[in-house]
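Q: What does the assembled structure look like for these inputs?
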Amino acid sequence: MALLSYLAKRILTSVVVLLGISVIIFMTIHFLPGGPVEAFFSLTQPTPEQVRLLTEKYGLDKPLFVQYITWLGLVLRGDFGHSVYGPAVLSLIAERLPATLYLTIAVMLVAMATGIPLGVLAAVKRNTWIDRLAVSISMLGTTIPYFFTAIVLILVFSLYLDFLPSSGYASPLQNLSDSLRHLILPAVSIGILYAGTISRITRGSMIEVLQSGHIEFLHLKGLPDRQAIFPHAVKNAIIPILTVIGLSTGQLLGGIVIIEQIFQWPGIGNLLLFSIFRRDYPLVQGVTLVYALVFFVINLVTDVMYAFLNPRIRYD
Amino acid sequence: MNSGKRQTGSRGLRLFFHRLRRQGVPYFGFWMAVIMILIGLAAPIITPYDPTQMVSNNTFQPPSFQHPFGTDDLGRDVLTRTIYGARISLSVATIALSIALILGVPLGLISGYFGRYVDAAIMRFADILLAFPDVLLALLIIVIIGRGATNVAIAIGIAWTPHYARLMRGSVLTVKEQEYVEAARAIGQTSPSILRRVILPNSIAPVVVMATMTISHGILAEAALSFLGLGTMPPDPSWGLMMNTGRLFLRSAPWIAIFPGIFCAITVLGLALFGDGLNDVMNPKLRREG
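A:
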């Protein structure tokens, strides 16, 4: 029951936050010098007819609140408006979203596959040179700028060793091996950053579990180290790790903008930058909205998952 | 948590440094960061070159005795630009941090102390801003206020504000239940005076720790936004901007991108190590959990 009411409350506050997000994104166009008309026609001088149509569609002659409701109604029906270059914003986003999701999943896989074992190893070998080495590696991972990591990786693996492509994208549905070759460098450059974060949390969480009576009891029962650690200890340490993974997936969306730019990856991060530079404000608005929504959903899922997994959580 | 802070003046500072030194690595990080800051400040003394002056017959020179980090596509000395870059990175990060503190601390203070509707309103607004990834929020602000180093500082500062407001609020919630606050109220002090003289000094410690930890993020954010071409404008030197330019000549002149990257990484690492150590010094309980 407590869980249900927690979820209900969480979803209710989520709706408030979502509305707030939409207000901020709606307002960006109004904050621009020149206002919405200028924003929608940043390229060309609009004809009076075009201005009239725009005013009618978005209710631009009505009070701001009415304009917001009109805009929200259109957005909820999937009408994100048109790019100043013509195509519908939503179709441009839909075209680019799969590439971004593909990269995001790859990054998280890289981060988990290196971060979790590194953290577990550091915790098990606590206060030895292995621990210190692992902690130093994760510290380097979180502090070296990921765009610098990307540059170094390109320099070594593409330009010197000529082993992997330095940029570009290939769809995994058409040519899987070529697609993976293009995926490795972008995924690793930013994956290292999150591997560092995940390994630090894993280490802390594992140390706590290993010191708990539960694992000591397994030791006393005569269970050898390996069986006590895998799966018992890892299973108990997983909740904070999953939370961090969820939260970092959200933050990752920001970092991916830069990685997509460096590797010419045709995702929505690249689209966002493109729209900012071209002053394509309807597109900026649409992409930001989608970004914020994805971020919001990931955080919500993380929260709810945390509530389900952790029976000790206080629902308040 | 308050033991270090209660000590006043130089004695407190000495105790703080004593503890920091005992931590080893963070102390090293502290000096790494200090050296980078000094290099930035002393830039005109260290290098004879101008960071923005182009020399057309001197482009793409590899590292040599005259130009230890080589020269870039416009013939400018990369070492000079890298150490002048430290100035921009550190000032943008500092301005961003100041904005976040100036806005976030009072908001958190008011929110935590007055509670109820004030608290609800401020915290829901913070929730909304926190519902954007930091980089995205900063990008959105730049779209509105325009590009450039100062605007990047403002954008990062605003993006950080809700984090500080929330942290300050949490700290105030604990402090305001303390007996000395009750005592201040009993002797007839007004709310503004209690907030300023009693609550603020006693609840600021976690904010100070977070500030040292996030200053390195500020440097990263400035570099990232300049890398995207939205921050520091050419010809001013910024590490992010230099890395982005260098990326185009990676095969023929890798030094253009590599050296600013290394400087940026060292500064961020130093500050992060120091921030971590400071966290441990101020919260001895955390030390064991690593």
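Residues 23 and 281 of chain B are 8 Å apart (CA to CA).
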